[in-house]
Task: structure prediction
Amino acid sequence: MEDRHSISAPFLNIAILLLIFISSCQKDNHAWSPEDMKSSNYFYSSQRDNREASRIINRAGEVFSIDEREKVIKLTDDALANARKVDDSFLNKVHPELKKHFRGEFQAALELARQNLDHPDPKTARRSQDLFAAFVDWFNANRENIHMPPAY
Result:
């Protein structure tokens, strides 16, 4: 029998919210610098890794295997590392308020989700979910004014 660990699901329904968020990204043909393209890649990679971690958690439910837990930890670490690499000037170029929401909601949610993986706590998990949802809500409400370069 496989050893299973119980932790709170910090990403409950976040995969769905982030799919809506990513699909709503308005592509733009502005002249983007090589540095902007790197930041864009980090931005999209962070979203992708977080979505994959969310899928694993949502599939597994409240209890998941050591292997699933290790994958979620790696994906969350990668998502957080990529989020931290996104340049603030890029976020400001995409939308004047994106930096505030990306750092204060999306990145903060990742940090709490990662913390929750080591020290499961329902309050931390809920706060992480709320921050993810706030970011997606803000992004969707402002998507017409958000101009992202295409992912590469």
Summary: Residues 1-13, 23-28 have pLDDT under 50 and may be disordered. The chain has one domain: 4-145. Strands lie at 4-6, 63-65.
